[in-house]
Amino acid sequence: MLKIIFLFHPLILLFFHLTSTEANFNFNVTYESNFTDQNEIHARISRRLRREPAVWGEPAPDYTGVQLNDYIHFLNALIFVDSKITNHYGSDMDKIKRDVMKLIQEANNYFYQINVRIIVLDILQTFRDDLSLYSFEEYRNHRISQLPNHDFAALISYRYAGGLAFVNGMCTAKTVMLCGFYPNNPTAMGGIFFHEVAHLLGVPHRNVTNLINIPNCYCPVTQRTTNSGCLKIPGYDHDCTLQQMVNMLEKNRCLRHVKATNFFFTQHIVEKSSLPLCGNGVIEGEEECDCGLRKLCRNWNCRADECLQIVKTWQMYICAWLIAVLIVTVIICCVIRRYLSHCCGTSTNYSYGAYCSCNLLQLLSNLKSVIHPKSKHFWYRTGSNFTQSLRHTGNGTIGTKQ
């Protein structure tokens, strides 16, 4: 039975989504306090039944046409699971986290395309199976001081065929959402998760007959005729709702935004403990690299699907050290050869040995002065004394040589 929910909050509307896995359609009913006529309510419900479905289990569309700025946006999510999920997995939190992260992994296929880095701080138990969106809001706000800092909290509900969220709830006490979860297909609700985050950022549902005007949304006519529409979030009726979400995200002032300084290296290192999510562009846990989605990865040294380096960092350091040693060795050999060539080309047979010895000592002194110009080592003093002794011996053949 469809429960009619009346909201009396003047700013935030509640959107109720009920998707059927068999019929593959979606109910999105918006009720305001000024609706009193029952016939009008039923007529509104009838119109909502024809709303575009939030496709269950469909892969993320290609959003390459979206207009983005030069910033990376971070969303820190804190996930809660109800007791029905806990019981299904026999209270094995490792298995719960593994499968719930598959849902977030699917949602990341949407987020990453719009420069959003979704970070899961933790997955916690509620020990409750009766939480609605409103009671979950109260549950979260009552424990807010005991929870890690997060941008929004999401309740994952066992076999709930849809999602709930407060429109424009981000950055307020209503930054909570609810999303269904099916253990037999954990990734199926990834699009719904993304859909509800769009509500939190401020994207509402509008009547099918109402047009929306998003100035920086450019949709070719051929693209509008496809099932996925043009820059449309699954479950919305209008094209350009994704661009609308991006515009609202870029204007948000409570979320963290970082300017993308390099086109090729876009991975970031997480500043707090989180659950590793390979493909979100953030190095977490034991990940060696994270260049984002495979089709968008520009790091030749990273396996995007595994977040592992092809050539390890320590191997690159060793190679760099060997190359540096080789370069220095070649330079030293070239300098020594130059001195010896000059020595052999200008000296006579009579003074050859003494002359080359002198120049070799001068070479060592020059190298030493370059490396340690202010140091006075024993070998330098000894070499200098030996040079002076050579100057005072013999018949003066090398006495004037420097």
TrEMBL record:
Active site: 196
Top-rank taxon: Eukaryota
Extent of the signal sequence: 1-23
Keyword Cytoplasm: no
Domain Peptidase M12B: 73-231
Segments traversing the membrane: 314-336
Name of the molecule in the record: Peptidase M12B domain-containing protein
